[in-house]
Amino acid sequence: MISKIFFVILISILCSQNLSAQFAVEFNEVKGTLNSTDKFKSGFGRYDGYEITLYKGEAVNFVVYSDKFQPRLAFVSQKGEVYKQSNGDQNNVASLIASVPEEGEWILYVAGDSTASGSYTFQYAFASANSISLSADADFCSRIKFIAEHAKAYFLLFENSFDSQQPFVKLEGSLDTFLDEDGSYNSVLYEGNNIKEAEKIVRELSNNISKCLGKSWQKKTSQWIGEEDYKVKTELFSVSEEKPREVKVNLLDLKNSRQKFTGDYKVVLTIFRKN
């Protein structure tokens, strides 16, 4: 119990130390177990508790899943009041997303019914108050850094689903922007038949990204490579750290491809975390 609490406190302290940076997002995973020695409360069930230091305005996303029992989540303030609980728990998964209303020591309970027993996986993401949304007039570099930072947490807090008024972050000139099933951010920046225009967009985009991300990101350029029935060449930016990420600018030649829709060439920016 103590080791669980200490581990989560340590992670949240590391996150808080980054608040001076432009953006700060963290993601971590804990393996836990419910068994007969864990605490039990009538009407609540058997549970584990995780104490977490949080700051006002932070966003949190908690997910727990188990193939042994149906878990539930309860987010409790330092006053002992239940601030939020997971709803619609099913398929052995429970999730909870919230904005933190006040600084303090919060507790996240992972609970099951009276017979719950077995292992579970607890994933949690934090975003500092300045990393939840961007102003509408944010420049290109701010947008790239913001998106790349959220890749650390597989974009779990990117759409800010607890605030439906907050728009999805897009790059200027994007024709289509979406999060793919593989956990990547994708922005289509060109679709057409002009290869020179497509290559110009790739050069400008690559140069701007290089200036924004800085020297800690390594750049690599590939030539045309065959992929199924199309070709692609890539400008790749990668950072090797505890949570490695990649930014790719892909130029696709779809002239003879079944995936061709509106043009022979397509430019796609993809940002994701490498597992």
Biggest sheet, open or closed, and with what strands and sense?
7 strands, antiparallel
Q: How much β-strand is present in the residues?
A: 35-45%
Q: How many discrete structural domains?
A: 2
Quick one: overall form?
elongated
> Can you tell me the residue ranges where pLDDT is under 50 for at least 5 consecutive residues?
5-20, 160-166
Tally of alpha and pi helices: 3
First-last Cα distance? 28 Å
Number of strands: 16
Mean pLDDT: 88
What Rg is obtained from the alpha carbons, in whole angstroms?
22 Å
Instruction: Decide which structural class fits the backbone.
Output: alpha+beta
Could you walk me through the main structural features you see in this protein, from its secondary elements to its overall organization?
This protein has 275 residues and is α+β, with helices and mostly antiparallel strands. It has two domains: 2-131, Jelly Rolls (Sandwich); 140-273, no CATH class. Helix content is 16%, strand content 41%. The protein has three helices and 16 strands. Strands 10, 11, 12, 13, 14, 15 and 16 form a seven-stranded antiparallel sheet that branches. A hairpin with a 3-residue loop joins strand 2 and strand 3. Helix 2 (140-150) crosses helix 3 (195-213). The longest helix is centred in the last third of the chain and has 19 residues, at 195-213. The model is unreliable at 5-20 and 160-166 (pLDDT under 50).
